[in-house]
Amino acid sequence: MKLHTGALDALDPRISRPAYDRSSLTPGIVHVGLGNFHRAHQAVYLDDLFAKGLDHDWAICGAGVRAPDGKMRDALAAQDYLSTVIELDPSGPRPRIIGAMVDFCPVDPENGPLIDRMADPATRIVSLTVTEGGYYVDATTGTFDPSHPDILADGAAPERPKTVFGAIVAALKARRTAGLPPFTVMSCDNIPGNGEVTRDAVAGTARLSDPDFALWIETNVAFPNSMVDRITPATGEGERALARDFDLDDSVPVTCEPFRQWVLEDNFPQGRPRLEEVGVTFTGHVHDYERMKIRILNGGHAIIAYAGALLGCEFAHDAMAHPLVSAYLRKVETEEILPHVAPVPEFAPPAYLELIEERFANPAVKDTIRRLCLDGSNRQPKFIVPSIADGLRKGTPIEGLALESALWCRYCAGSFEDGTEIAPNDPNWESLTTLAAQARETPAVWLTQRAVYGEVQGDARFEESFSKWLHLLWSDGARRSIETYLNG
């Protein structure tokens, strides 16, 4: 059965459906970046809230600034903006239909429809999931890069922006001209201090064409920090087939683990939905939650990813079932990551690690190792290198993290140990494979990537450890290298 509003009452009774009248919803949030994570996370929280009969004026209008966003719009519009979310519990899949989205802006190269929708008085929050690499951060400085060609183009033609940040600037300016208060800009991406990073990107884009307006943005627009968490695999034929197991035809279903978490700063001058009613934590200490999640979970994904890939694991749960990979994860986390993470009210770091290990091992999720290996050039500097930097500053162990970095380098050489080619898996794959080939003989060449290694580049202790592990990986292989680390 094709998913659409008229089909809801006839769906398989095992499928949960919106417990509210969708005709009562009106949009209050414009969300840019309608990927799987948003539809399995923010949209689900709002669906739960609407089911309580609360805040029906906070529905979602989807939006995007890239060509693939247009394809997503077409797919969702064909099913009345309904999404199938299937929670992958070990006891069996739990499908539900999410109805929190009611519209999707036309995707236009100059972003006119998006600017108009954000400038609408009904829009009080603009939220974002544009990936970790979508904020134009210069890894060498850790700050916004105004020299990026995309940003320079928006600075030269602010009335025809190509980026989401240029579109936000244009919409904020239109609202100020119309005498409307600014909307809140809420990032939902896995970036430390994501609110501050987003503020810098928006104000930095504005500064190229109107420095006074950039200052107005910094003074008047709210950018709350947040921490978001839910493992959400990519959608492929297997996920679509799972929806069909429930006699449901959805071209873009989402699968996810049962666990979810959302932590937010309560900084919403134009109001917000009462998300605390459905489990969202509002706190002034988002950074503590964020550090725990990014270091332990996202860093943990990187630890099992390259080790698992080189040892032949297909899924995250396969890696966790491999005694070397699971032992490697536990040792690196316990000795080299947890000492630099503060507790939060819900979790001490060791308890959080146990939760993460349980989540990684969930066989129903089928999160691929290839997905976890994706985009290392953007993920390593955010999820791994900060823990290395802490260890170097404090004189604590960094051997396991240096091995992780060497495993990433070995993976980027472009072939598995049996000679099978690794398909490109990073936006910078060509340059990475070239550098990894050079690093086979001269490991220090890999560490010249200032955009990745930042402040740890040039550290003698890290370079010595990395070089030792990379030589061992090439001479003896991943299994022997990980065994060597585990045996001290």
Automatic annotation (TrEMBL):
Where in the numbering of this chain does the Mannitol dehydrogenase C-terminal domain appear?
A: 285-469
User: Pfam families, per this entry?
Assistant: Mannitol_dh, Mannitol_dh_C
Q: Which GO terms describe its molecular function?
A: oxidoreductase activity, acting on the CH-OH group of donors, NAD or NADP as acceptor
Q: Which InterPro entries match?
A: 6-PGluconate_DH-like_C_sf (IPR008927), 6PGD_dom2 (IPR013328), Mannitol_DH (IPR000669), Mannitol_DH/Oxidoreductase (IPR050988), Mannitol_DH_C (IPR013118), Mannitol_DH_CS (IPR023027), Mannitol_DH_N (IPR013131), NAD(P)-bd_dom_sf (IPR036291)
Q: Locate the Mannitol dehydrogenase N-terminal domain: which residues?
A: 28-276
Q: Name one GO biological process term.
A: mannitol metabolic process
Q: Which UniProt keywords apply?
A: NAD, Oxidoreductase
- Which protein is depicted? Mannitol dehydrogenase
